[in-house]
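Entry type: protein chain
Record version: 2
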Amino acid sequence: MTISIQPIDPVSRPFFGGKVSGIDITRPLTPEQASAIEKGMDQYGVLVFHDQHFEDETQLTFSRNFGELEEASGDLNWGKARRIASAHVNDISNLDNDNQVMARDNRRRLFSLGNRLWHSDSSFKAVPAKFSLLSARLIPSAGGNTEFADMRAGYDTLDDETKAEIEDLVCEHSQLYSRSLLGFSDFTDEDRIRFKPVLQRLVRRHPSTGRKSLFLASHAGAIVGWPVPEARALLRDLIEHATQRKFVYAHEWKQWDLVMWDNRATMHRARPFDAKEVRDMHRTTVACERSTMAEAA
């Protein structure tokens, strides 16, 4: 079979979200196959691969076709014993190290609830994420969808006055801020150092397509040179604009789906599910080559 990428919703959203067929990505890719997938990412921002029975090692091998991988250092368990062996695989689950569902008041679970806020992966790192690749190993019987917003369309549909106002703005991103939005403040001194704010451009130009997009996230809590209340009001307005339903694709997970998205062009959030059921997802993350500040320069 030949690799094929078609829009998931060709009527309402032909520009965002593609379904890939004709390829088994658990096997080594040819350079031509990797190139076709990367071009699909440039076009659709989000790609969905069904029935891909990954193990962590095969997921890592597939992910490395697209660049250097991040270490999974964005959770509270960094530097401690982990359920997943590889430091390059993020544990996006509600399971503890004994593979038991975490209690509702578990500190790590409460921290992870920040994933239900709109965000871009690793925008709280000086060099943020390029691609994220999420593999569904076990899913709950209902709920737990992931929603993706097209930040290119969000930018394109702003009025010219707003585009001019935000063109050169720089934001501070930190998980300390995003988690505080949910009332989570149980940070150690080490956490506060590791999650200290970093600077990110508010408007980015995609290195492959040249398209501009909004680089927003719940992690963004300040704009350099602006009063904090005014900055947060603007950021809230921009997120509200960019996450209109016409710009959003909601992925309903099936076991063994692999969903891949471009954090430079999208924002996403997880949706609720029954906390007593297992949701076990493994994420690999391809890092950008440089910071958004360096991109602009």
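Comment: The chain has one domain: 4-296.
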